[in-house]
Amino acid sequence: MSVIGKPVLYSYWRSSCSWRVRIALNLKEIPYDIKPISLIKAGGEQHCNEFREINPMEQVPALYIDGHTLVESLNIMHYLEETRPQRPLMPQDVIKRAKVREICEVIASGIQPLQNLIVLIYVGEEKKKEWAQHWINRGFHAVEKLLSTSAGKYCVGDEISIADCCLIPQVFNARRFHVDLRPFPTILRIDRELENHPAFRAAHPSNQPDCPPEATK
Fold it and tell me: Can you tell me whether residue 13 is helix, strand or coil?
């Protein structure tokens, strides 16, 4: 374990849940180290006994911070918000806060788990693309509708929030599975707005220490 002063993020380069937390840490300008956990090497390092002690769900991310290990990306981001309120990622207005949580839950509960690696392995190679496309499309129709009343420059108003931390990695996943994004103009606009933001760019899979060289070509 690292010293208490330096958080350690257990992360996989292409994990959208890890990516959410990387964005939040970057936005809050919290220095951290990355401990790469390969989800594919040797059947997945997340399934080894050592990592099971860190996260019994055998998933990334996990964050060691303030002498504690936390799991689940939304939980981690809310902890960061509560303990380090500078550079806030939640609005002050209670309705806007609810709207942020709403968008996060649709993505984190209604889309991402259904196209997660463990599910796609179970579905099988032949059907995984069609399966992922179906659930991403279904979820993005809901997100686009929510954004029609909540979005300003970003997901909720004109300030970056945890909702944006969740949305951008999911757009990457949608492109990875060749989802037609033309029906989702607000999602695409927010993605374009944030693609070159330094915190989002630094968190991108292609900029991670465990990103394989062939993935950046």
Answer: coil
Contact (CB, 8 A) for 124 and 117: no
> Span 8-87: which CATH code?
3.40.30.10
Per-residue pLDDT of the chain in tens (217 residues, 90 and over written 9) = 344 679 999 999 999 999 999 999 999 999 999 999 988 887 888 988 889 999 898 899 999 999 999 999 999 999 999 999 999 999 999 999 999 999 999 999 999 989 888 898 898 999 999 999 999 999 999 999 999 999 999 999 999 999 999 999 999 999 999 999 999 999 999 999 999 999 999 999 999 999 998 887 6
Q: Three-class SS of residue 215?
A: helix
Q: Could you tell me the CA-to-CA distances from 91 to 77, 78, 94, 147, 156 in Å, in that order?
A: 14, 12, 8, 16, 8
Helices H, strands E: what count in the chain?
9, 4
* Domain parsing of the chain, residue ranges: 8-87, 94-200
Cα separation of 153 and 97, whole Å?
Answer: 16
CATH topology of domain 94-200: Glutathione S-transferase Yfyf (Class Pi); Chain A, domain 2 (1.20.1050)
Gap between the Cα atoms of 142 and 157, Å rounded: 18
